[in-house]
Amino acid sequence: MSLTSFFQHHVIKGKDIYVVDDHHKALAAWALVRRSLAEPPNLITIDHHTDTSEAFRGHAHWETHEGHVKDREVFRLGLVARIDWHSNKSIADAIANLRHDEHIDAAACSCVLDNAFCIQLSDSCATPSIEEIAFRNSRQENWPNGATVATPTRPMTYVPASNRIYALPFDCFIGCSTMPHNDECNVRHSDEIIETMYLDDQLARGAEISRCFGLSSLEAAPYILDIDLDAFHSRRAINPRDPSTFHRLIRNAVAITIATEAECVDEEWLDEEDSMSSSDLLKELLGHIER
Ligand SMILES: [Zn+2]
Predict the structure, then answer these.
(1) What separation in Å is there between the alpha carbon of 104 and the centre of ligand 1?
(2) For a Cys staple, 114 with which of 40, 181, 209, 246, CB 3.0–4.6 Å?
(3) Residue 186 Cα, ligand 1 centroid: separation in angstroms?
C-alpha cells in the first residue's frame, strides 16, 4: 500500500510540495517527511481555522452514538495509539477515520510532528498566556469589582501544551485602532495574512510561546510549512505588497503541504466582485514557491 493517492506531489527548486484536497490527508505527506528526518519536524500552518480539534473526536462520537463503542475516550485514545508513521497502512487507516480539523492533533500525538504553530484568522485569543489566564480568573473571582491583577501586556509567558499545539493570537490588521473591530477590519486583517509586517508580528507572538520551551523562534528548528488555501479571502491577500517573510518561510521549510479545501475557500471568500477559486489560488501560491 502506498500513500501517494492522498496527495499530488510536485518538486519545485528541489523542494517537496504535497497538495491535498482535504486537509487531514496532509498526514500522509507529514509521515513521509517524518521518515526522511532523524527527529520529528515542527509545523507552521497558515489557515483560516485553528484546526486544533482532538484526533478522532468525530469518529469516536459517531461510533458511541451508534452503540458500537462503550467508552468514547478509551476508544479515541486507542485509535491515536495505533498511529504508526512507519506504516503506510496505519497512516491510511488513520486518515479514513479523521474528520475536519483533527489532523494536527493526530500528527502531534503520534510524534509525526513535534510542535505545531497555527497562524489563523478565526480565534483572536487562541492559546492563552499565563498572564491572560490569571487576569481572567481574577476578574471572575472579583466580579463585579474587576480584576486585582494587572491587565496583561506583551511579551507574555506560556505553559507548554500537552499536545504541543499552539494557536497564535492576533489583534486585528497591523495598526488598527477601531474598537470594537468590525466587518471592514475583517477584510483588512485577512488581506494581510501573508504580508511581511503581519507575519513578522505573528512570528514574534509565536516566539513568545516557543521561548517558554527553549525554542528561540519558530524558524530555529526544522519545520514543515502548511498552507490551507481558505486562509486567503481576496486577490489582494495572495498578492502581498511585501512577500519577503513569506518567501523566507517557504525557502527554509523542509517541505510544504497545501490543502486546497475548495468549499472552504468559497465559504470564506470576502470579495464578491472579484472571485477566485481554490485552483486559481493554488496557481498563485505555486508561483510564490517558484519565486
Ligand atoms: Zn480592527
Answers:
(1) 29
(2) 40
(3) 7
Closest CA to 219 of 134, 146, 119: 119
Q: Per-residue pLDDT for 123 more than 90?
A: no
Dist. CA 185 → ligand 1 center (Å): 4
Cα dihedral: 50, 199, 173, 281 (round 10): -70
- Cα 261 to ligand 1 centre (Å): 27
Domain positions in the chain? 7-51+112-290
SS3 26: helix
CA 219 to ligand 1 center in whole angstroms? 28
Gap from CA of 197 to ligand 1 centroid (Å): 16
Report the candidate in 205, 168, 187, 183 with the shortest Cα–Cα distance to residue 50: 168
For ligand 1, the distance from its centroid to the CA atom of residue 128, given in whole angstroms, is: 20
Distances (CA, A) of 123 to 97, 119, 128, 172, 249: 26, 10, 11, 11, 22
Question: Residue 114 Cα, ligand 1 centroid: separation in angstroms?
Answer: 33
C-alpha distances (whole Å) from 68 to each of 61, 71, 100 are 10, 10, 22
Q: What is the pTM for the complete model shown?
A: 0.94
pLDDT digits (tens, 9 = 90+) for 171-214: 999 999 999 999 999 999 999 999 999 999 999 999 999 999 99
- Amino acid at residue number 141: E
Question: How many Å apart are CA 111 and CA 116, to the nearest integer?
Answer: 11
